[in-house]
Design a protein that fits this description.
- The complex is a heterodimer of chains A (411) and B (408).
- Chain A is of the alpha/beta class and 411 residues long.
- Chain A has two domains: 271 residues, Rossmann fold (3-Layer(aba) Sandwich), CATH 3.40.50.10540; 82 residues, formyl-coa transferase, domain 3 (2-Layer Sandwich).
- A six-stranded parallel β-sheet of chain A has the order 3-2-1-4-5-6, with helices on both faces.
- In chain A, helix 2 links the parallel strand 2 and strand 3.
- Chain B has 408 residues and is α/β, with parallel strands linked by helices.
- Chain B folds into two domains: 239 residues, Crotonobetainyl-coa:carnitine coa-transferase, domain 1 (Rossmann fold), CATH 3.40.50; 86 residues, 2-Layer Sandwich (formyl-coa transferase, domain 3).
- A six-stranded parallel β-sheet of chain B has the order 3-2-1-4-5-6, sandwiched between helices. In chain B, strands 7-8-9 form a three-stranded antiparallel β-sheet, covered by helices on one side. Chain B has a two-stranded antiparallel sheet with strand order 10-11.
- In chain B, strand 2, helix 3 and strand 3 form a beta-alpha-beta unit.
- In chain B, helix 2 crosses helix 8.
- Classes of the chains: A alpha/beta (411), B alpha/beta (408).
- At the A-B interface, helix 2, helix 6, helix 7, strand 6 and helix 8 of A face helix 3, helix 7, helix 8, strand 6 and helix 9 of B.
Chain lengths: 411, 408
Amino acid sequence: MFQEGALSGLKVVELTDRISGQVAGSFCARLLGDAGANVIKVESPEGDPYRRSGPYPGGVPDPDWSGLFLYLNSNKRGVSLDIESPGGRAFFLDLVAAADFLVLGHNSSEVERLGLRREKLSEANPRLIITTITPFGLTGPNSGYLGDDLIAIAAGGMAYATPGIPDSVGDPDLEPPLRSNTNMAGYLAGVQGAMASVAALLSRKIQGTGCEIDLSMQEAVAAVMPFELAHASYHEPKPRKPEIFGVMPNAYLPCKDGYVVVMAVMEAHWRNLMDLADNPDWAELEVFSSGVERARNWDALEPLLLEWTMAHTGAEIAQLAQDRGIPCFPAYTVGQMVDSAHVTERGFMVDIQGPGGQKFQLPGYPVRLERTPWQLFRPAPKLGEHTSEVLGEWLGYTAEQLLNFGVGHDK
Amino acid sequence: MGWGMINKLPLEGIRIADFGQIIAVPYTAQMLAWLGAEVVLIETEQRLTTRIWPPFAEAEPGVNRSGGFNMVNSSKMSCTLNLGDPKGVELAKQIISVSDVVVENYSSGAMERMGLGYQEVRSLRPDVIYLSLGAFGRTGPMKGLVGFHSVINLFSGLASVTGHKGSHPRIMGGLFPDAFSGCYCVLALLEALYHRSHTGEGQHIEVAMTEALATLLPEAIMEYTLDGTEPERVGNRHKEKAPHNVFRCQGEENWVAISVENDSQFLALAQASGNPGWSDDPRFATPEARLKHQDELEPLVQQWTAGLQVQEVVEKLQNAEVLAGPVLDSGQVLSDPHMIERGFVQSPDHPEVGPRPLGAFPWAVDGGQPGIARGAPLFGEHNVKVLQELLQVTEDEFARLVANGVIS
């Protein structure tokens, strides 16, 4: 039996498209579904593009088993409508009129073209909360710009800031700004979209009316960089050169079998670290006598520390250091993380079985709410799986009426 | 107009006891403060972090001058209690008993050792919403590990999908794990407040930063668990789009990001760059062909961008409906006319360092910012307000607490 989620009883309609806000809009709606809301994903008859992006269990393309689609769309039901046709659009607008939330992930020009701004929708549903996620927002001089994850990560300042502390760029001429190979801006904007939506829900409880949330993916990225922005605001932008943090060591160094972060800026940590390194003679040198001195003389210290890290594996260094409370850690592969006793014991991953019996996992939910826990209420929908069910339940159509509209029985 | 201009803010009347450390939980509580909550930051002089870390205004150290502190603690009240002293803990309990929400990210077990764990707090305030965030969470064999953002990056596998082709794992910039985990915390707290608003029920919330980061990696986790495949590092490239990278422009350290997904966008790129021949070249004729010949295609694009200003490239391409954007550094983010006009960049005043721009809400509501960012508090600025006005500590008692070092 499922428990009620925090948002049980609330209705969400999601409409997203390719290029811009797809991951963001889909993830935002999923998060509302994760909290128990009744989420309807509206797809075109061709289906969401991520049904075709994989990865697939068994490697065989199958629109019902594309990994990214499964992840972004669990805890939703699926309705297939051609909103470019008058009939499909009418159904869509009726669903929106019955909803508490409309989540959109589009380019701003598309939002306007589809007529999905608040002034167009509020008459039919004044309590509707519209959460619109676009690359650069609905207003401002660049609102017409197109964008995707790369563009948002670049224009939001994250690419320039990567690699970040304590990693650093060796030769800025050879090393361009960097993005992670994930849909990071999409997930970020998705979580922030859900935050904004629930904040608007609390507001609706006070004011009685809905609102239009205009979330920009560019700003979603910039908003998670308070430390980088503080540098610009308070002192100066950090150059993309080997960065001295002011106190050392806080460094990302190669070791025997990979890379490791060595952080021992506090005196107690530094003395413990030198203990681990068998207290070499240089540890007593005046030039390394404080965190500030060690930063000032980092060029001399780095090769000495490297000698030690290169003689040990990342796991050895982490074990030795963490036993003494020094925050050191090696670079894990995805497999090392997934297989770690920590992740297993906390039961974070979700086990899934593919159509051919293939077993695999997807990330679970990173927040444990005691009274309103996250639950996998339902897996991602097949294309059009719940069309007649939802149109009947939300809009009161009978099966016969729906057949007359050309909507058949659900698969 | 935003809510702040005409109406009550969504969290007006909610009080939060903030035991946040460094970035993640302070960031969380700051967003709730912007949304109208009254946030009491409880600081201990003996355990200061960001207040005494750089960057400082004009590089001049001082507990009220740190950007690292001021940019994640704006709009809060500061109350300085020595939590190493039982009297200080007693006062913290009194603050909690008049608060709706408690948030903390001390190391695992620290709040319990001070007598401020969830069970104790619930006996003071049965409907409390209590959030604990840990690098690795509060359970599991690694719950005691010390972990800053770099450790989270490295453990979660995020670093392993970040890096140039054939090169080593890299650490994402911006102390990303802290703020991203903080976003999940804000979402959870808002949900819990909504739940409480119609059930009267509080609850405990636990968050692991490592797990927050792992939610970014569904495809890599799926592939590894299917057949042991580890993701490759691909720099800025994409499995379906090419070109998809950053390219140098005129001057030093200037780049533009360009992303092309389909043939019509590529044709538009070829024409806008004055190279209509590209689209006839069989190496670049289809998305598959372009993916295969990226090593040859990227230098051609680079040759074109290298002679132009970033903004020229962006405008030429956006006018042709090709996805392009500037690679901004953090200074450029804060001075970006577009984000300033949208209200994302706010400059709350501060008595010691003056107005300083910060990044506020990444969303607008009905055309305005959905809350208000005020300056960060001075160290202990609200001791009298919190202890005397809110808790009714008498003036004499207050003076004694100061003399005994319970209040800093």
